[in-house]
Amino acid sequence: MFGRASKTLKKIALYSLGFNCGYDAVYLCSGDIPFIQDGTRKDEEFRDEAFRFYQSKYGDSQMIVVKGTIYERVKTITTDLENRGII
């Protein structure tokens, strides 16, 4: 998106594409909270396109979509990690 990435970020990206990747959980944040432009983001349409891309690529069986306020999202993820015995 920005035309460059650090070596560390590239390594993480390759790892996350399935090369020796072993995530216990994957979370995708929905776009149900207001979009606020902070000077580093594209736009709301891009956010929605990205959400649909990840949802179609990975499907519901491989990720958990989190919705609601920031507090609700953190609670959802924390509860899931506790149920999995990760934390």
Task: Provide a short characterization of the protein structure.
By secondary structure, this protein is mainly alpha-helical. It is built from 3 helices and 2 strands, in the order αβαβα.
Structure commentary:
The protein has 87 residues and is mainly alpha-helical. The chain contains three helices and two strands. It has helices at residues 7-16, 44-58, 70-83, and strands spanning 27-29, 64-66. The chain has a two-stranded parallel sheet. Helix 2 (44-58) links the parallel strand 1 and strand 2 (64-66). The longest helix is centred in the middle third of the chain and has 15 residues, at 44-58. The protein is globular. It starts with 6 loop residues before the first helix and ends with a helix.
Descriptive terms for the model:
mainly alpha; 45% helix; 87 residues; 2 strands
Write the layout of secondary structure elements.
Elements: H1 7-16, E1 27-29, H2 44-58, E2 64-66, H3 70-83
Q: What structural class do the secondary elements suggest?
A: mainly alpha
Largest sheet: 2 strands, parallel
DSSP strand tally: 2
Uncertain segments are none
Cα radius of gyration in angstroms: 15 Å
Order of strands, widest sheet: 1-2
Order of helices and strands: HEHEH
User: What fraction, in percent, of the residue positions are helical?
Assistant: 40-55%
Beta-strand percentage range: 5-15%
Shape: globular
Number of helices: 3
- The chain-level mean pLDDT equals 83
Q: How many angstroms separate the termini?
A: 33 Å
